[in-house]
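Narrative of activities, Objective 1.

The group set out to show that a structural description can be obtained from nothing but a protein's sequence at a throughput compatible with the screening campaign. Below is one input-output pair from the validation batch, recorded exactly as produced.
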Amino acid sequence: MVKIDNLASFDQITAATGTQAASPEGAMSFSDVLRNAVKEIETPEAVSEIKNVSPAGSTESVVEAGVSEDAILMLGQTSELLEALEDFAAKLASGSYTLKQVDPEVTRIEDMAGELEQSLGSLDELDEELAGLVRQVVTQTKVEVMKFQRGDYI
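Output recorded for this entry:
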């Protein structure tokens, strides 16, 4: 991929080769349009519009939105379960772990899913979308645990 750093070189190339495209009166050339676009990107006003953004994974914006503490706790538990599932998948894919070495992690994942499923009853009716997401994660976790116990990963 070619990186364009200097627009003056584009002007020099077109002037040296004499390949200037004919354009209607008042129309901007491609180099003018490109130069203006780069100037707009480099202006600090475009960057200064982004303010007070919470870092990824933080719960500040969730708290400000009026979400219950139970929902925030459940979001954290769901996130931990998803991370555990990703670790499990990475260990299986690497091939450097035996199934006996992975078995305690499967048990931990199964326990985490059980705890998460039990805490579903504490959510308000307003958090039905979150409950649906949690149910999907728990169901997928149970499927992966069953596949492991059944011997699909041998």
